[in-house]
Amino acid sequence: MPKEYVHKTALSEVLLTSWKETAPDVHVVTAEWPRAHAFYSSRNRLHDPLLLVETIRQTIPLLSHLAYRVPFGHQLIWDHFTYALEPGVLRTETAPTEIELRIVCSGIRRRGDTLSALTMDVEATRNGVHLGTAVARFTSHAPAVYRRLRGAYGDAAEAMARAVPLPPPVAPRRVARAQYESVVLSPTDTRNRWQLRTDTTHPVIFDHPVDHAPGMLLLEATHQAVHAVLHPLPVIPVGLSTVFARYAELDAPSWIEATVIDRTESGAEWGESGEEWGEPGTEWGEEPGEESGPASRNDYSGIIHVRVTARQHGQELFTAKVKARPLLPESRPVLSLEPDGRSSTRPPRKTDAKAGTKAGAKAGASTGFRSRPSGNPYTNTPQDLTYRPTA
Questions:
Q1: Prior bond of 389 cis (ω within 30°)
Q2: 352 vs 92, 326, 361, 363, 386, CA distance in Å?
Q3: Which residues contact 272 (CB under 8 A, 6 or more apart)?
Q4: What is the Cα gyration radius of the chain?
Q5: Which phi and psi (to 5°) does residue 93 adopt?
Q6: What per-residue string of b and e applies to 1-33 under the rule 16 or more CB within 10 Å gives b?
Q7: Cβ count near 342 (within 10 Å)
Q8: Within its chain, how far is the Cα of 309 from the centroid?
Q9: Which of 328, 300, 318 is nearest to 230 (CA)?
Q10: Cβ count near 339 (within 10 Å)
Q11: How far apart are CA 46 and CA 43, in angstroms?
């Protein structure tokens, strides 16, 4: 796949491998993930969920240029984005990972004969096994329109030259990263509040000049904020929903805040079925009948809900609601959230692991693992899990 079609200058960053239109406004795109990515690195023997997000992001310019004839030079801007995935299907293997995306496009708007907005509904599979879904809406702007829209901020080279000095990073282990260069949050004097680190020399995030903080940087900051607010509990983000309200400029600091929330604050857009959410009202690792404190933030399936908000000049850039699943083997103590947001250790409870018993079902829920269909080769067991921007 030519790198120009996915808006990358480094061929090594191109994840997509093929595209075909199977019906009007229905497309199938294939991708190949490397065993080890330079930035979206695997952890706990699982691919980074943002590798799926980046794969979907690359389909935005691909379909714009090939399927909808958007000229090169037009700016593609994210409006809103949602994803949900099955973490067990992210398991790394000894060979590159083959991904297929089925994309249905709707809400198509044009300015004259040129595309101006589009919504993509994406279903991702890995070797025929369901990996996840996503919904992305973006707008497309001709160069002259974009210059009028951005005004003094429209020149990418000048915007990058005015970028604020890079502040020090938080410890990589707090945000599930191995290297300081991969950390996009800087500590502040306020708990669970960080300054966004906008490293305009980063070879992946700033693969080419842009006039504002890229969407993938903001989503990376969101994931890192989730890891930081839940540290030392190891988790994997399994769902996210966000609307981008305005551009994150490079010449002023942006501030990221994370708050652990309960299910009732998470919003109806996640869905209300028991299969998706589990039964509410029981804290992770808590026996029925125990008092649940005001900071009980886990649903019955072990999912933790976190709200991440970014602001600049006191104005909201975006708010994301994230679902995270704990990664804990059964032999480890259960970590739970205290009312002040800190994690604490509880001794593991004795449970009957026999299939079909209530205690066995609760044991599975308390560790955050759910059974998969028998045909899924990526069955997620505790042994598997040991340890408004430019598109």
A1: no
A2: 31, 21, 9, 8, 21
A3: none
A4: 21
A5: -135, -175
A6: bebebbbbeeeebbbbeebeeeeeeebebbbbb
A7: 16
A8: 14
A9: 328
A10: 9
A11: 5
Other CB atoms within a 10 A radius of the CB of residue 277 amount to 18
**What count of other Cβ atoms lies within 10 Å of the Cβ of residue 51?**
20
Report the distance separating Cα 200 and Cα 159, nearest Å. Answer: 10
Instruction: Tell me the C-alpha distance between 39 and 20, whole Å.
Output: 29
Q: Is 206 helix (H, G, I), strand (E, B) or coil?
A: coil
Place of tokens 């104005």: 315
72 burial (CB, 10 Å; 0-12 / 13-18 / 19+) is exposed
Count each helix (H run) and each strand (E run) in the chain, helices first. Answer: 6, 14
Among 391, 303, 317, smallest CA distance to 56 is for: 391
CA–CA separation, 367 and 111 (whole Å): 51
Question: How far apart, in whole angstroms, are the C-alpha atoms of residue 39 and residue 47?
Answer: 11
- Alpha helix locations (H) across 39-155? 49-66, 143-150
Going by C-alpha positions, the residue among 209, 204, 159, 210 that lies closest to residue 181 is 204
The SS3 call for residue 275 is helix
- From first to last of its 391 residues, the chain has per-residue pLDDT tens of 899 999 998 888 999 999 999 999 999 999 999 988 889 888 889 999 999 999 999 999 999 999 999 999 999 999 999 999 999 999 999 889 999 999 999 999 999 999 999 999 999 999 999 999 999 999 999 999 999 999 999 999 999 999 999 999 999 999 999 999 999 999 999 999 999 999 999 999 999 999 999 999 999 999 999 999 999 999 999 999 999 999 999 999 999 999 999 765 555 444 333 333 333 332 333 333 333 332 345 655 689 999 999 999 999 999 999 999 999 664 343 444 444 545 444 444 444 444 444 444 443 333 333 334 444 555 443 334 433 566 6
Per-residue DSSP letter, 164: P
